[in-house]
Amino acid sequence: MLFKKRKSAKAQCASCGSMLSGVARVRATQLRTLAKTEKRPERPYGGVLCSACMRRTMIARARQT
Amino acid sequence: MITVGRLCIKTAGRDAGKKCVVVDQLDKSYALIDGETRRRKCNISHLEPLPQTVEISQGASHDEVSRVFKLLGIELVVKRAQPKEEAKPRPRPVRAQQRKAMAPKSQEKQKPKAAASKLPAAKPAVKETKLEKAASRQ
What we know:
- By secondary structure, chain A is mainly alpha-helical.
- Chain A contains two helices and no strands.
- Chain A has helices at residues 28-31, 51-64.
- Chain B starts with 5 loop residues before the first strand and ends with a helix.
- The interface between A and B is small, with 12 and 10 residues.
């Protein structure tokens, strides 16, 4: 009998809720074996915000100063 | 708006949020940027221009750009791989046999003096084999 664990939930953008790409959907035990660059995209707010929201944030920050 | 010398902030990619200056305009959609970002070709739609402009020549070198950024108060640091330090050997658990072998020489000098009286005077160098014993009996 091989009881498989369910897949982990999809990563969502913190601001708009869209599905994030570049974030591995694995359980915590496998996540620990992955390298840092394999767990999130290499950009600011990678793994937290989607690329569109990140761009919006950067533009807003640039227009503030 | 995007002309040579215009300060911008990059809005996309791994250099997002960093200040850069337009060094050259290559196309109607591409520009060469340098500054806190890497020196590379960049899409103009990924740049957010700032109200500031600086005076640099078209196609300026990285040294010129870093000098200009210093006047603005930004130090440009070039990321270069640091030469790795040789790893120090970790202290490993030492077995009793190894510890005896590694014993300092001062202890070894003292040992024969103390043990000389205890040791027997003569030790048989070669042990008699069984065949030799049988032969000597016969």
